[in-house]
Amino acid sequence: MRCVIARFPFELTKAGVIASMKGIKPEPAVGDVVVIGRRQYPVKQVGEAVTRQDRRDFSAGEVVRAMTKLGFTCTTVTAGEQAGPAAGPTETADAAGTADTAGTPDTTGAAGAADATGTVFSDPQWSE
Fold first, then answer.
1. What is the distance between the alpha carbons of residues 112 and 11, in angstroms, rounded to a whole number?
2. Cβ neighbours of 36 (radius 10 Å)
3. pTM: predicted TM-score of the whole model, two decimal places
4. How many helical (H) and strand (E) elements, i.e. helices and strands, does the chain have?
5. Between the CA atoms of 53, 59, 65 and 70, what dihedral angle is there, to the nearest 10 degrees?
6. pLDDT of residue 87
7. For residue range 10-45, what is the model confidence (pLDDT) as tens digits?
8. 21 Cα distance to chain centroid
9. Angle between helices 43-51 and 60-70 (to 10 degrees)
10. DSSP tag of 81
11. Antiparallel, parallel or unpaired: β 31-36 and 8-11
């Protein structure tokens, strides 16, 4: 498929893009991403690898438009959706993704949630 990125014409194919990105580790991304295989690549990283141009020479929209026409899935990742840091040795993550400190006594009891001083609140809005 012929597309124009940064005022230069390119003949891109889906197989050619996949081959260009093979062996390239995805950078952390917040914003527009292209899903290639099982990985999410920032659109600027894909554009740079495919066109061999500097990232400042083209916009993310140009790459998103070209990748969408080729049949790739393009999405937007927010900071909250980005993978967070791994749980430390004193923390465990539950299925909901919230961290719980291991070894800390449970001061919430049946009455409600407790603050840092151990004060228990019975108001339902304070309980989890």
1. 63
2. 20
3. 0.61
4. 3, 9
5. 20
6. 44
7. 999 999 999 999 999 999 988 999 999 999 999 999
8. 18
9. 80
10. T
11. unpaired
